[in-house]
Design brief:
It is built from two helices and six strands. The chain is of the alpha/beta class. Bound molecules: adenosine-5'-triphosphate and magnesium ion.
Length: 121
């Protein structure tokens, strides 16, 4: 990933999206326990010696909320941006790195790099 890059994560519940975001937080010197799947917060910002982490979880995002939370600006701004449930993002992000996570078995995950297009029309 580039220092200001966007990482789009797709995969079922429990496939490991937040754990991967926590690993990235660790790499930026941020306490990994700060990075969670919040119940009602769509986007959280964390700051560490290695830079800023924007962590978004779109699972509960309603279509009408998209504009009001300014996601497009946040994702274009500084810092590493990690988006869980990225297939709910209603716009394209050329240049983003997109990964699909799959639970294979207890303690085993597949992480596959995908083309950066959304499944939404
Ligand atoms: N790479 C991995 N290898 C093995 N086990 C993992 C891995 N990533 C996550 N897990 C296990 O799966 C559990 C769920 O992971 P995590 O919370 O990151 O999933 P998630 O994709 O963020 O789920 P949600 O969609 O509910 O937010 C973790 O608590 C951990 O036990
Ligand atoms: Mg999660």
């Amino acid at each position: 990933m580039r220092p200001d890059g966007v990482l789009l994560l797709d995969g079922d519940l429990g496939s490991g999206k937040t754990v991967l975001a926590q690993g990235i937080a660790t790499g930026l010197g941020i306490d990994r326990s700060e990075v969670q799947s919040p119940t009602f917060t769509v986007v959280r910002e964390h700051s560490g010696p290695g830079g800023r982490l924007i962590h978004a979880d779109l699972y509960r995002l309603a279509a009408e909320e998209v504009d009001s939370i300014g996601l497009d600006e946040l994702l274009a701004g500084p810092g590493v941006k990690v988006v869980e449930w990225a297939d709910r993002l209603p716009f394209e992000l050329p240049g983003a790195l997109r990964l699909r996570l799959t639970r294979l078995a207890e303690g085993q995950r597949e992480i596959r790099r995908m083309a950066t297009t959304n499944s939404l029309p």
